[in-house]
Specification:
- This protein has a single domain, classed as Outer membrane efflux proteins (OEP), CATH 1.20.1600.10.
- It is built from ten helices and six strands.
- The strands form two sheets. Strands 2-3-5-6 form a four-stranded antiparallel sheet, with no helix packed on it.
- Helix 2 packs antiparallel against helix 4 and helix 4 packs antiparallel against helix 9.
- The longest helix has 68 residues.
- The chain starts with a helix and ends with a helix.
């Protein structure tokens, strides 16, 4: 019995594994985005919601279009004529059995139905809103992937920098031990140099683990085969360029942000809902026609047809329409409030992103200058130590400052890259910017 239960589970697991994307050995940002935008469950959910909205749109639209159906009937009947008000001088009140056949095509079309028209326009706007929400989900996924990729690049850069610094410290320790053997350096110098080697090696090991964790986080976000057996090395993830004018950025964001356009479509849908319920008080006109064969049996029949117009006018609905209008107006107010809130949020995000890029660019410039000075200090202090002018304290202190400068430079590059990604997202063009 257990084997029968496990077999379907095993089959499902194998099928899932076959659908899971395998990451390349060198993962670029564009490859990561393509995998994420194909596999991400948030996008699949948004696409399913759009399909649901499209299906509802087609259902509502069908009420405005003509309908054609065919009906065929063959029956054998008995009837009591007196029961339907026909009193004939016959010995039996029961007539039959006799055949009754009818086969015809039936046509129906609403000639005037304002409520259905407004309802169709409402669901058209709902469908537009769902489509924009799919685009917005793609923007969010893009931003998350870029952020995770930048974090992995930062962890890798930190590891590589600490590897170089550890080698530099090892070289200093070797020089110190050689000078100790020649009697021109002290045990304290060798001890100090060895401590620096051990400290940097410990930091390098921590950075290696942080890089592995960042890659696993990225793989999980891609919903691919979760592994750390790949490398990230795409400098395009840091983005390029500066910022636009703040007012121009705001105008561009409000024109292109899919979440804002989705909120606008939701407001239009709510407005049409109100008009649809208000139009329910208007008369509707429907055309119905049928044509076919009628008789006792298929070989004994004649052609018959009917054409009718149906005018319907609601006189008293016990407050149903009024209640629907109130509910629709409340939904409209809610959608309008959501649109205003979304606009304010976009303004905050754009202005924050613009100032963030400007600040990060200054940080990169400053940290780059300081990194150059720190490297120069290390070189100069090493020369002084080799020449015997000073002990290796200056070199160790210089290496400490170089470590801090390297970390500040890496952090500034990461901050600038993330700020650019935030700006691209704030303006509604993250996917377009990073998948080019």
């Amino acid at each position: 019995m257990k084997r029968l239960v496990l077999l379907p589970l095993l089959a499902a697991t194998v099928a899932l594994a076959q659908k899971t994307a395998t990451l390349p050995a060198d993962l670029t940002l564009r490859q990561a985005l393509e995998i994420a935008l194909m596999n991400n469950s948030t996008l699949r959910t948004a696409a399913a919601n759009m399909e649901r909205a499209s299906g509802k749109y087609e259902q509502v639209r069908s009420s405005l279009l003509p309908e054609l159906s065919a009906v065929a009937r063959q029956a054998y009947l008995t009837t009591n004529l007196q029961g339907i008000g026909i009193d004939l001088p016959t010995p039996s009140r029961i007539q039959g059995p006799f055949g009754s056949m009818d086969a015809r095509a039936i046509f129906s079309q609403d000639l005037l139905n304002i409520a259905s028209l407004r309802s169709w326009q409402s669901f058209s706007s709902h469908r537009d809103s769902s489509r924009f929400l799919v685009q917005d989900a793609r923007e969010v996924v893009t931003l998350n992937v870029v952020g995770a990729y930048l974090q992995a690049l930062r962890a890798k850069a930190t590891r590589d920098t600490l590897t170089k610094q550890t080698k530099l410290a090892c070289d200093l320790y070797k020089i110190t031990t050689d000078r100790l053997k020649r009697g021109v350096a002290s045990e304290l110098d060798a001890n100090r140099a060895k401590q620096k080697v051990n400290s940097l090696e410990q930091n390098r090991q921590e950075a290696e683990q942080a890089y592995v964790a960042a890659k696993l986080t990225l793989a999980g976000l891609l919903e691919a085969n979760v592994t750390s057996d790949f490398e990230v090395s795409d400098p395009d993830a840091y983005g390029s360029g500066g910022t636009m004018d703040k007012d121009a950025s705001l105008r561009a964001a409000l024109a292109t942000r899919p979440d804002y356009r989705a909120a606008e479509a939701a407001v239009r849908a709510a407005e049409y809902d109100v008009k649809s319920f208000e139009a329910a008080r208007l008369p509707t006109l429907t055309l119905r026609a049928s044509d076919g064969q009628s008789g006792t049996y298929p070989d004994h029949n004649v052609n018959t047809y009917s054409v009718a117009g149906l005018l319907t006018y609601p006189i008293f609905t016990s407050g149903r329409i009024g209640g629907q209008i109130r509910e629709a107006k409340a939904a409209l107010e809610e959608a309008t409030a959501a649109l205003d809130k979304n606009r304010s949020q976009i303004e905050v995000e754009v202005l924050t992103a613009v100032s963030g890029v400007e600040w990060a660019m200054k940080q990169v410039e400053t940290s780059s200058q300081n990194l150059g000075l720190s490297r120069q200090e290390v070189d100069l202090s090493r020369v002084r130590f080799v020449q015997g002018v000073a002990d290796n304290t200056e070199v160790v202190n210089a290496q400490d400052r170089l470590t801090q400068a390297d970390d500040a430079s890496i952090r500034a590059q990461y901050t600038l890259g993330l700020a650019r990604a935030n700006l691209a997202r704030a303006m509604g063009g993250a996917e377009r910017a990073y998948r080019k």
